[in-house]
Amino acid sequence: MTEKACFALACFWQPDAQFGCQKGVLQTRVGYCGARARHPNYPSVNDHTEAVEITYDPSIISYEDLLRLFWQFHDPCSCKKRQYMSAIFYSDEQQRRLAEDSKKHHESELEKQVATQILALNIFHEAEDYHQKYFLRTYHRNFYGGLPKHDPVTSTRDARLNGYLSGHGNVEDMEKDEYLSELTEEQLQYVRNHMTGEHKAPTVEPFIRTVIQVGWNFVKKAVDTQNLALLNKSPKLYSIPKNIAIRRVEFTDCWRATNR
Fold first, then answer.
1. What is the pTM of this model?
2. Identified catalytic residue from 6, 11, 21, 33
3. Residues 135, 116, 92, 70: is their CA dihedral positive or negative?
4. What secondary structure letter does DSSP report for 234?
5. Does residue 11 carry a catalytic annotation?
């Protein structure tokens, strides 16, 4: 029997990886929730919040354990706009009570209030495919392409690898992970090398590809609706590797340059 939890910790790429490699977590998927707007997407999140949905085995990891990780994995005192706010979305009264108790306990430890909101979960809207297991499928695209095909949303293997290759978890747990049993020794060594730091720094190419993809979504929508103002709402991109510097592109300039 499995259960689900839903948390928001700023950009959803990082918590997808952080929770994905925890023992007892079986699936993760990222998406949008917390508002009534229908069909949210990355260019048009509206008043939704980026969140991660976690499917877990309560006999291995409890909801209380996940709450402790929630506080550990981000800064809940940082007030951000609604898209990136800190929130716990509960699905029943027990989760609400545990979340409230956990929040009070964390505030007492910090000796100050946190910005985290505790909200009832209405509908979880699954995010676009390219957001699912983002680090694994973008920065390790060639490695991922050599693995037996899995659904990145439902695959425990992909959830684990997304976490391990992002620097979370430890090598000892990875070596014993039953969900990696189909990997070859060469593929396991690739994971080991990244977990121990014996690997090349990530290149800028995968991130540029995402910039182009997200940017094109904005440009296409603006062209379709003749809404020039939309072009100045191009998203800031988070979770950039430390050794990569990307300058935000102003798509208004591109529009004007091509429409003179």
1. 0.77
2. 11
3. positive
4. P
5. yes
